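[step 3/7] inverse_fold.run input=structure_tokens len=366
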């Protein structure tokens, strides 16, 4: 069976694999707000000690005061006893003031500034129209040591959607790296061989996050037997050779590559629509799916560096103290997650809905 939307899955489900790793962090997640936040937060908080929380709410998180209020809303709905820590971000606009950057750094709870090219993806309308307008802001970030987190896709509608990352790198990212040599930059959810090659060749200030779905799926998954809206995200899935380049980067041991799920929940009926939203919900198996990708690549021993060590090192934070234990023991993902208990009359279709995930968490502890 083509379980992953492509042929050739290697995992033998009968293998006996058990691994204990330092508790991972998610360096890119969408937690949303209100009822959806209540519905999805427990999945992330159960697996990850910390997460970089994306600021693309309907009304984006543009100021330190807004980030502080959003952080409080997250903490208020954490499951009892959870020690999960949200690491907040600001949403870069053409007008983000340098004083906001200084205040963000001083806050201690803001760890990055997200650059969405205007129109590139969900709630990016208020994003950056021309990055040159932000040069003073970027200089302030470079000076205080606040990373720039980049949605790396050009928005020029004449550029083929599958080429938008590679063209963004040529037209925008390469220039930024040259102009701001001390600015830390994360190319978020890198999806192409070109992206991987760029990050590898760039100075140590440049890193990238990788999603589990881009490690596990190629673009055929969007068209398997028909149109599959639940495999549609941005940046869009790419060809198999790109997926292979991403896996090679993830398992390379390079500290430049680390875990960022980009779990992005959208209620079922906003995805199953004439113009469906971009985003896959993966938080319900946020670490398990990466374990599967690493196991399939024969490199499970490299998972801890990727999931638990490289990210903290890049962000200047200590690794977590707790550990989690995973076993290779398949379980079936629910066909849908009812959102009614959280107050939304709809459901969420999780990644691998009704299908198997290879790994499960059996313990979290000291
Ligand atoms: O697929 C995506 N969904 N890509 C993004 O860049 C945004 C995200 C979302 O917020 O839904
Ligand atoms: Zn995202």
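[step 3/7] decode complete -> sequence:
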């Amino acid at each position: 069976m083509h379980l992953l939307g492509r042929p050739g899955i290697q995992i033998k489900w009968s293998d006996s694999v058990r691994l204990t790793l330092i508790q991972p962090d998610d360096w890119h997640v969408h937690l949303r707000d209100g009822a959806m936040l209540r519905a999805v937060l427990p999945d992330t908080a159960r697996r990850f000690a910390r997460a970089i929380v994306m600021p693309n709410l309907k009304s984006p998180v543009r100021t330190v005061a807004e980030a502080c209020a959003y952080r409080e809303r997250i903490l208020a709905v954490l499951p009892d006893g959870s020690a999960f820590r949200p690491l907040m971000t600001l949403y870069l606009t053409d007008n983000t003031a340098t004083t906001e950057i200084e205040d963000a750094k001083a806050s201690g709870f803001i760890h990055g500034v997200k650059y969405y090219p205007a129109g590139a993806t969900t709630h990016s309308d208020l994003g950056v129209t021309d990055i040159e307008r932000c040069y003073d802001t970027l200089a302030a970030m470079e000076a205080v040591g606040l990373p720039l987190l980049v949605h790396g896709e050009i928005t020029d509608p004449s550029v083929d959607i599958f080429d938008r990352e590679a063209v963004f790198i040529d037209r925008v990212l390469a220039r930024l790296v040259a102009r701001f040599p001390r600015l830390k930059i994360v190319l978020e959810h890198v999806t192409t061989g070109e992206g991987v090659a760029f990050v590898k060749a760039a100075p140590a200030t440049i890193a990238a996050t990788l999603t589990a779905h881009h490690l596990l799926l190629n673009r055929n998954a969007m068209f398997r037997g028909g149109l599959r809206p639940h495999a549609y995200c941005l940046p869009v899935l790419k060809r198999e050779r790109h997926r292979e380049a991403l896996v090679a980067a993830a398992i390379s041991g390079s500290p430049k590559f680390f875990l960022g799920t980009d779990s992005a929940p959208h209620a079922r009926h906003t995805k199953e629509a004439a113009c469906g939203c971009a985003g896959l919900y993966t938080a319900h198996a946020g670490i398990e799916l990466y374990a599967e990708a690493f196991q399939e690549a024969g490199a499970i021993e490299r998972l801890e560096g990727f999931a638990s060590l490289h990210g903290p090192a890049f962000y200047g934070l200590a690794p977590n103290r707790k550990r989690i234990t995973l076993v290779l023991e398949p379980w079936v993902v629910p066909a849908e997650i009812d959102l009614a208990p959280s107050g939304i009359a709809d459901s969420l279709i999780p990644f691998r809905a009704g299908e198997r995930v290879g790994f499960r968490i059996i313990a979290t502890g000291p």
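[step 4/7] annotate
The first helix runs from residue 34 to 47.
The domain at 18-365 is CATH 3.20.20.140 (TIM Barrel).
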